[in-house]
Queue: 2 jobs
Job 1
Amino acid sequence: MQSIQAALESLKKDHRFRSIPNIDYGADKHVLLQERHILNLASNNYLGFSERAEIRRAAVIAAQNYGTTSGASRLVSGTYGPYDALEEEVARFKGTEAALIFNSGYAANLAICSSLADRNCVIFSDRLNHASIVDGIILSRATHVRYRHNDMAHLEKCLEKHAGTHRKIVITDSVFSMDGDMADVAQAARLCKSHGALLVLDEAHAAGVLGQGRGLASELGVADQVDLHMGTFSKAMGSFGAYVAGSRTMIDWLMNTARSFIYSTSLPPSVIGANREALRIVQNEPQTGKRLMAISKDLRDALNGMGFDTGQSQTQIIPVILGDNGATLAARDFLLQRGLLVGAIRPPTVPKGTARLRLSLRADLTDREMEEITDTFRDLRQNLPVVGNES
Ligand SMILES: *Cc1c(COP(=O)(O)O)cnc(C)c1O
């Protein structure tokens, strides 16, 4: 106990102690915080779907028709008609033979890595990949080769070095969660083909947004070169759970070996109902993601014009890299006082010395709200000159 207490103290000293914010409902565009309405740029609710009446209704109807639980893991008895329907709809949407629903993106990544690889395999993983991929690789016991972020020349060298390995898997986020940049999927696919490696793409931040909701691979026209597509319903789609889409063979293998699928109760009807409705809306309103990309570019241009460092962001995820942990927290608090909620992301979530504010824009922000955001950052720039010097 004493050593844990000491470790906690050390986290606090480093400005790395985490606590849950006191927010009424964190997915809304405006959240109530200390009795004030704050514009929320910290949620992954990129399309504002948490507020869509049709999705709420679909969840309620599914709960009324089927109940509040699936009652078991999927393979035992935890299944019902809409579950199978959702998987068929996802496969059709993604243009794959089959799809399988997982309880979360985290569970899906654990499943993919640990089912496809064992101690005789090598998994090549972008250095900035999501923590769930890292955990999946550890669980698989495969050799873990971390290539430099989005550096395809380095990936190629790594693949050459392991040419003798019987199974090689390359796995990458399509849109990186803390940087908002995009993976070079086309080049990764070429390398995988020429080196006999499987390509797995995590579209968590792109599903519902890019490629008319199908993801970055679809936007780039290389979806058919990806062996396994993973995407979540928990971010842009405004609900919960994840899908994995690919060939019948791949999906059958996951269904038979993925422990996070086999040994966990499947999703409840309300969630499946919401997911199906969200998927329907994305297909009916494919232009929403485009508006989100456009307002994101405008804000990045404005921030860069003020001298802020937004890294390599190309999407609705915009980091404002300040470097220092304390300065990042101070900037976050400043923005909160001015009515903006943004994330303050620190190591170990991001590399040391790259602490940052993280803005996630959403398609339902009005032009006026975008102006307010720009003005508030101009204030930040002027009022905390120290913060600027840290970057
Ligand atoms: C959020 C995220 C996940 C995890 O998805 P959950 O549904 O929240 O568990 C996986 N991969 C990436 C890249 C993510 O951003």
Job 2
Amino acid sequence: MNFTQFPRRKYLQGATPIEPMENLSKALGGHVDLYVKRDDLLPGSAGGNKTRKLEFCFADALDKKADTVVTCGAVQSNHCRLTASWAVKENMDCHLVLEERVKGSYKPEGSGNNFLFELLGVKSIRVVPAGSDMMAEMEKTSAELKNTGKQPYIIPGGASNAIGALGYASCAQETMVQLNEMMLKVDGIVVPSGSAGTHAGMAVGMFAMNTNIPVFGINVSRKKDVQEEIVYKLAGELRAKLGVKTEIPRDQITCFDEYVGPGYSLPTEDMIEAVKLFASTESILLDPVYSGKAAAGLIDLVRKGFFPKGSRVLFLHTGGSPALYAYLDTFRA
Ligand SMILES: *Cc1c(COP(=O)(O)O)cnc(C)c1O
């Protein structure tokens, strides 16, 4: 895969670490060796996966002479926080459209990422009800900005178009270089599957390099079949963009929807246990919405014996810990 054919900003300082999670592996019975790729430690305020995608999105925006970015997300969106963060560094304005997926969940004085939007100086926040056409809403904001003489660029939710997903195909390449250097043979990679750029990027990257390492997505909102179709469609667009000759087989896209619970961003017992277990065994902070539910999936799959005895499994930690502070009651209850 050749990433030099695309405009790209350089936000990464180098590869994020791959670490063994010996304490957690032992706590889960010791049948599977768990490793973690620390994308929670990526640059950009408070870290997390969107920085890899934004390297490509901001480069495209600058190529198109934009001076302003418009993006969208949920009320505690890490993606909105990181877009605001890189907009600061690029001297661009940032405008947000937030979807109130859970009624009454937006609080202007809210903690977590909500507070960070403010601190990072976003120019405007517009809250729209659940189920709104977010692209249409962003276009509305964009049209208003154009009327004031600005040059806005729309970054889709989660930066999950083929441009943003390049960041995770590149992550797959980075991961493979590390695994080869470490002489570490992993049998599977577990990732959260949300707006799908992370999952699609890792799946396409691992496939394009003929690694034979399966990538398993843990859903955070949708049903299995719906999410798999979304990931598969984006994987197809990404493959074409990268010029990967062979189409990725449909059966290489696998999602689990058993860990979503009552819905997006709504706490589950498994998520609370996973967040507490990662903190108490590995000193790693997860988040309640994405990495906590993905880790709940990882833990359950290990306990159920989904991975054969002696397997090595790599968990992609996508970040999100600022959202913990918006959920204090959940963890203290
Ligand atoms: C956005 C996000 C994800 C999901 O990644 P997608 O590419 O949207 O599927 C996972 N974890 C965290 C912390 C995120 O912010």
